[in-house]
Design brief:
alpha+beta; Arc Repressor Mutant, subunit A; Alpha-Beta Plaits; two-stranded antiparallel sheet
């Protein structure tokens, strides 16, 4: 199909003009422009570079941890330790760390990792490294959506992260009001 051929040309060179692609494919510039816009609207192309969503190349991992009772200061220490931990060797980065209130779990942490194996290697290391804080192995939730490709964050993930943060902050406000 012509639309896939346009996509293939954009994958080779995202800066290639619609007229150059049209000339190569033997179709009109308007056709190429229309297909490019459709691909952008379908979020097959993210932004100005043609980045095609691969199958699970980069994943977000949400973890729920049971820790020993932590004072606010101890939680901040643990959070800083998680943030500052050398994660590059595991190809894992920390996105968020929160303290949970009124939950069987006491810590919520969100990570982005190259793949599941890299993340599990990190978890094995973290459980040993944070053994003074952790009561049991963390519960791991693995979304299946692609998060990042070629250094570009999937726009739908960015929106979801902002919405989840908002929901979390609203829940904390509700719990704070209920506790007063």
């Amino acid at each position: 199909m012509l639309k896939e051929k346009v996509l293939e040309e954009l994958k080779k060179d995202a800066k290639k003009s619609d007229s150059a692609i049209a000339k190569k494919l033997g179709c009109s510039q308007a056709t190429v422009t229309r297909y490019r816009r459709e691909l952008e609207e379908e979020r097959v192309i993210w932004g100005y570079r043609a980045i095609v969503e691969p199958k699970r190349k980069t994943q977000i991992f949400i973890t729920l941890w049971k820790t020993r009772p932590l004072s606010e200061r101890a939680f901040e220490l643990l959070k800083n330790m998680i943030d500052d931990a050398t994660l590059k060797e595991f190809e894992v980065d920390v996105l968020d760390v929160y303290s949970l209130i009124d939950s069987e779990y006491t810590l919520y942490a969100k990570f982005i990792a190259k793949d599941e194996r890299a993340f599990m290697n990190y978890i094995e290391w973290a459980v040993e490294y944070f053994e003074d804080f952790i009561v049991e192995l963390p519960k791991i939730i693995t979304p299946t959506r692609v998060v990042k490709e070629s250094g570009v964050l999937n726009p739908t993930i960015d929106e979801e992260i902002r919405f989840k943060r908002f929901q979390f902050q609203e829940r904390i406000k509700e719990l704070s009001k209920a506790g007063k």
